[in-house]
Design goal:
With 83 residues, this protein is of the alpha+beta class. A two-stranded antiparallel sheet has the order 1-2. The protein contains two helices and two strands, in the order H-E-E-H. It has a domain at 28-74. It has helices spanning 2-20, 53-74, and strands at 32-38, 46-52. A hairpin with a 7-residue loop joins strand 1 and strand 2. The chain is extended.
């Protein structure tokens, strides 16, 4: 009985998921948005940093490249491939 309930819930989730998917609309590169950065060790919140969508895209790409480079260095320069 329990297996049937899990199966029914799984199938229900699969049929609902496509209905919840949204179409991605193009983002205006000049639209400003803000992100909150928490300060470690502080209970007083953090700071708000605002940039345009184009600037955030560039910042996200640089952060991704830096994280990939650090991972590669940690793996002995193997490009993330484990022996």
């Amino acid at each position: 009985m329990r297996t049937f309930a899990i199966l029914a819930l799984s199938l229900g989730a699969l049929t609902i998921t496509p209905a919840l998917a949204k179409e991605k609309r193009p983002v205006d590169p000049n639209k400003k948005s803000c992100r909150r950065y928490d300060t470690t060790g502080s209970i007083m919140g953090g700071r708000l940093v605002c940039h345009t969508a184009a600037e955030w895209s560039k910042i996200d790409q640089i952060n991704s490249d830096n994280a990939r480079q650090m991972t590669d260095m940690r793996n002995g320069g193997q490009g993330g491939v484990h022996p």
